[in-house]
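ok so for the tutorial part 2 we go from a plain amino acid sequence to predicted structure tokens. step 1 is just haveing the sequence, like this:
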Amino acid sequence: MNEQTLRALLEQVRRGEADTEDALRQLRLLPVQELDSARLDHHRSVRTGLPEAVFAEYKSGEQLVTILRAMLARKNVVLATRVSAEKAAQACRELNGLSYHPLARVLTGNDHYIEEVQAGLITLVTAGTSDIPVAEEARLTLKQFGHATRTVYDAGVAGIHRILSEAALLQESRVVIVIAGMEGALPSVVAGMTPAPVIAVPTSIGYGAGAGGYAALLGMLNSCAPGLAVVNIDNGFGAACMAAAINRPQQSQQPQPKPADHRA
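step 2 — the prediction. this is what the tokens look like for a chain of 264 residues:
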């Protein structure tokens, strides 16, 4: 259940279109649904604005199917990350309504519940083609969360004219996610080109001294560019969640009553 669904339910009760027992039946699974191997947090989107997602890498195929079956039955988007081709094949074989994205290793479902966010543009930039799988994890996460995205792939500092030619797009973006391996220099360049917050994602792409992404991570953490934050190595999902939080529309504020004037 998300905030929009909850508001609609409360409005139905207020207008007499649903009685309290109907509402209670719909709310009984909040906030947790107990499964054999998991406890699904259906209340998460109401609390945080972001629905629950499944980290599938160390789950068995049977556990993943059980969790996804329960999630597909709810009126929320479905997202599972780090899904191997074998587990995805099993899930798609046993459940209807799932789509597998092999490059990103992501399973999605219930796309008809995607709620488009009326906010700014999130741009995803990669240094190289090898960084695209992490970028695609971020892009698909943002798609499920309803955010508009643009991509600029293979625009690293070895051919810096490639990113310089995208200056106009970077200037109009509300948030920029920059994914880079090797020495991890690209986020610093991008952060110097845009007023938007830049989320840097180090990837495990690189030769031996790259140490599986630690060289890029340390380079990004030591950036002199203002307005740049860093998430964990290969964490496209985490970058997308942070970008979605930044890009969330501002809640309308109710006008506050003016304090009484007690002057004589």
